[in-house]
Amino acid sequence: MMQSDEIRSKFLKFFEKRGHKIIPSASLVPLNDPTTLFTGSGMQPMIPYLLGQPHPLGKRIADSQKSFRAVDIDEVGDNRHTTFFEMLGNWSLGDYFKKEQIEWMFEFLIEEIGIDPKKLYITAFIGDEKNNIPKDTEAGEIWKKLFSKKEIEAKEVEIGSEENGYKVGMQGGRIFYYDVKKNWWSRAGIPDNMPSGEPGGPDSEMFYEFANVEHDTKFGEFCHPNCDCGKFLEIGNNVFMEYLKNQDGTFSKLPQQNIDFGGGLERLAMAVNNCPDIIETNHRSILDYLEKLSGKVYGKDKADTKAFRIIADHLRAAVFLIADGVSPSNTDKGYFVRRLLRRAIFNWDQLGIQGENLSELVDSALDTYKNVYPDTCDKKESIKNEIIKEENKFRETLDRGLKEFEKGIDPFILFTTYGFPIELTLELAKEKGREIDIEDFNKKLKAHVILSQTSSAGMFKGGLANHNEKTIKLHTAHHLLLAGLQAVVDKNIKQRGSNITEERLRMDFLCDHKLTDEEKNKVEDWVNDKIKLGLDVVRKEMPLKEAEKIGAEMEFGAKYPEVVSVYFISPSASLQDDAVSIEFCGGPHVENTIELNSVRDPEGNPRDIGPFKIQKEEAVASGIRRIKAVLL
Fold it and tell me: What architecture is the 4-278 domain classified under in CATH?
């Protein structure tokens, strides 16, 4: 078998030879996107550069990004779903476009990792008449020529919606055109849902066919590439990001044409090895250890196999989340780590493993990551300790939960209050001959997850909600606020997170006391004084070590490449000597705290971005305060 390690290495070397700089994976906790709890794709950290901000390392970038998608937790246990995965990515930031990208991907898949082109199927964008976005015939033509060189006829088929695909089927096609729900990509989904200032574009996805997998008609009468039966597997998505949503709801072209490719590493391993089981292909070291501990064989018994899969996926996901600073808890991101571990522990018990702790699997989970994620592997012992603590805590609550179960308490309360996995409740109910309203549970759980995610959007992840003018002004004011807190309250204050929309900025920061009214007034005055000075906001690229040496403020827990982007807010060209703020940042910002080239007052004079006003200051955790502020 070709292991994922080898595929990752081949991918990065392939694009490095074609002028791409390789960047490290960002944290699973997003630093530049307040729209989501976790990093779920490789493009999230790249948004500023897709919008036109120059990347410190140039116009060609590639990486392998750690990703976590909580939405798939309940699906894990089949042969296709995981929560933790790696996304291989390459980007062209205003450099090459469709022709080069499609040709390179075809070459990589066929020549580099040996996928049979006869098992490769393509989807492309059918167009969006409502928003005046045309059909992507160009991508289709490029793919057709490539297939013809392999003596493969590439018939084009217009399907439209996924639902229609189940009615019309394959029709002998090789290239299939779908609508905006399937072949348009933006963080916000379809064009109509995109906020102003959001980039997006048509995409062209690549699917691998498992010829030995039969179509299951429970998904639809006929199979097609986007069918969920498992016969076809999406292995990569080429996004042609060239559109921007305008304030009036129309679309215009971005200043530059971008390529944003994402390919699931684990899925590529499935295709390369023609194995439709994602756990078998990518978690073999964990499965081997589980077989040793349980005395059971993976794949022999349906119920046991599901337990193997859940443990393997959830343990690996929890390991990487804990390594990136997320501890098990009942709220926010920690809720998902707790749920992963407790679901894994329940299935551990289902396999009949005794006298061992779930933490015994950490070594196996990290076995293949020693060279690519050494920082995570270095935290092995602390990760084990977190898992041991959580397992001990869970086993203590099990006794209380069992007593509550006997009282006939609501399964949802058992789940949220006592950490009782629904699987355990269903198992106990079966033994006792009780009926559980699983639809009611799922309805309550869905509402609970939405509430958790919504409240977490108010917790603090670094980043901008969008890139319109008001948000950009507040981003610059945010830098001044941190500098003001350090100048007025305590020079040792550090930011612990931020969230910026066009209405307000919010910042979490380390501070050992509640700010007095006098301190808040002085911070406001300090920020407003600096705004009125008409300070230049200047971006410089510099070596990481140099930026650290001059004391540039950085995001807590962030990992940075060797060359970084630093913003100076300064009254003169000397920048460093008299700057009032120096921060690591991807931007964007205003060019000057007085809007020299934009909004002016009724007399035609330049107007500053202020006045700045603190609306609220409060505690959010021990030693952490929160400020909400606006520009009036």
Answer: 2-Layer Sandwich (3.30)
